[in-house]
Amino acid sequence: MIAWEGQASWLSILAQMARDITTIGDAKVFVMVDTTSERTSASNQIANAGADMSRVSFHVRATDTIWMRDYGPRYIYLGTDEAGNGGVRAIVDHTYNRPRPNDNAIPNYWGALRNEPVYLIPLVHGGGNFHLESGSPQGFGHATRLIANENPSLSDAQIIQYWRDYQNLETTLYTPYPSFVDSTQHIDMWMIMLDDDKVMISEWVNEPTASWAITSDNTAAAFAARGFQVYRVPAVRSGGTHYTFTNAVICNDLVLVPSYTNSTASQFNDDALAVWQQAYPDKTIRQINCQAIVTSAGVMHCIVMHVPTQSNGDAPGVYMTTQNDGGQYLPGDLIQTDWLFDDTDVTTADLLLSTDGGQTFPITLATGFDGTSGSYYWQMPDIATTDARLRLVLHDAQGNTASDDSDASFTILGTPPCTADLAEPFGALNFFDITAYLDLYNAQDPAADLAAPFGTLNFFDITAYLDAYNAGCP
Predict the structure, then answer these.
(1) How far apart, in Å, are the Cα atoms of 442 and each of 170, 405, 418, 431, 454?
(2) Where does residue 436 rank: exposed (0-12), middle (13-18), buried (19+ CB within 10 A)?
């Protein structure tokens, strides 16, 4: 996601990025434009740069600045499984640390447009001051202590707890670079996560003993101690500008890396490219001249926000938000099942019931109802079980399906089943039921184990079955 803002040289950088992202990066680009006339000019410039225009979409929504990373939607997945898979996309927003109301409103606009929940974390913040590692069951976040200055009423522990609560991240706070070195004090100006075990950190080749160089060195050592592969890339200052090579954009198999024409910085363009190629030998590394924008204290990572793909690929994302905490229900209870979904082409839904803790779902409660409604009412059936779970199945127009199950078993206080009624026609006991029991017994099926000592089939089990048969069914 980008905002079509700034001087002509900045727009040229955006157009080049859109070209590479939509072609080499195999991704979409969402462009925020202020007016319909700006949409026309942006479309022409991006097309002329060579972008795949089928992957570019424009949204007429006013923004104040180009710095999308600082205010754009930061994504999480809700309802993932224990391995971190599945779930639906949602947005964690913050109050932008600049008086730019149009920028600050973008996450809510985007969430409403795409039917994605938006959660406001109570922090004043700029998104460039944040990196994260995914992880299971918990990930890790990284920010400078600029965040503490932006939120003076909160302790470090309270700030960290907010990120823990909203994003399931354990966050480390670092000493920011002095503002005379980097006016933003954002972590993305000197560090970037490459993978959950790889990181790239600036190395101050011309000022190795400066306090900010020591901050970078200490951070690199801390990651190495955690088992990370650490890559160091040059960083320099010239004329009051911080020239960084970590402020890059990673998009699928594409990496966009800044280059510069400044005489002090340009001598490290090739060195930086070599480090990136070493870090990502299987990705395409593209350099884009960012001299025009770096003097404004930001480069390419600062002017984009990533929008992740839905978790299930082509299939709908689905997260059932109710019936996840156990509990007890009576037959005939009116139940409301709610869900979130992540696919614009969802059509219908089915609701299934398991009585064995989710091993099987043989009971269909409802089928073919509106999958886009996000809510469905149904009646609890007369079944006796302490191990019930639900499965919600979503279908889309392309024939894809996905499902989400209850997180915990619940109890249905229904009429106990008739022990002796094992064969059709159910509801009447006859010779077929006796035959069915003997088949279970001869097969040493645990279902035939009706009497102590349990775990062994013997005469007492046969006697218990015959007693139940003679007692009949209620």
Answers:
(1) 56, 35, 21, 16, 16
(2) middle
Per DSSP, which regions of 134-247 are E strands? 139-144, 169-174, 191-195, 198-204, 229-238, 241-243
Question: In sequence order, which ranges of 143-210 are alpha helices (DSSP H)?
Answer: 146-150, 156-167
Read off the pLDDT of residues 378-432 as tens digits, 9 standing for 90 and up. 999 998 889 999 999 999 999 999 999 999 999 999 887 788 888 888 778 999 9
Residue 404's closest CA among 337, 329, 313?
337
Decide: residue 362, CB within 10 A, 0-12 exposed, 13-18 middle, 19+ buried: exposed
Calculate helix-pair angle for 8-23, 36-49, nearest 10 degrees. 60
The interaxial angle of helices 459-471 and 431-442, nearest 10 deg, is 160
Q: Which two tokens stand for residue 140?
A: 């890790």
pTM for this model (two decimals): 0.86
H/E element, 2: strand 2-3
| pLDDT tens digits along 273-323 | 999 999 999 999 999 999 999 999 999 999 999 999 988 888 999 999 999
pLDDT value at 472 more than 70? yes
Alpha-carbon dihedral of residues 250, 254, 255, 260, nearest 10 degrees? -140
**In 3D, which of 129, 134, 179 has the Cα closest to residue 151?**
129
Q: For residues 325 and 342, what is the distance between their CA atoms, to the nearest angstrom?
A: 23
Domains of the chain: 175-311 (3.75.10.10), 317-413 (2.60.40.10), 431-471 (no CATH)
* SS3 assignment for 324-390: CCCCEECCCCEEEEEEEEECCCEEEEEEEEECCCCCCCCEEEEEEEECCCCEEEEECCCCEEEEEEE
Given a cut of 70, whether residue 136 has pLDDT beyond it is no
Q: Using an 8 Å Cβ cutoff, are 44 and 19 in contact?
A: no
Residues near 44 by Cβ (< 8 Å), separated by ≥ 6?
none
Q: What are the backbone dihedrals phi and psi of residue 175, each rounded to the nearest 5 degrees, phi first?
A: -65, 125
Per DSSP bridges, beta strands 375-379 and 346-354 are unpaired
Cβ atoms 305, 72 nearer than 8 A = yes
- Over residues 137-195, the pLDDT tens digits come to 678 999 999 999 999 999 999 999 999 999 999 999 999 999 999 999 999 999 999 99
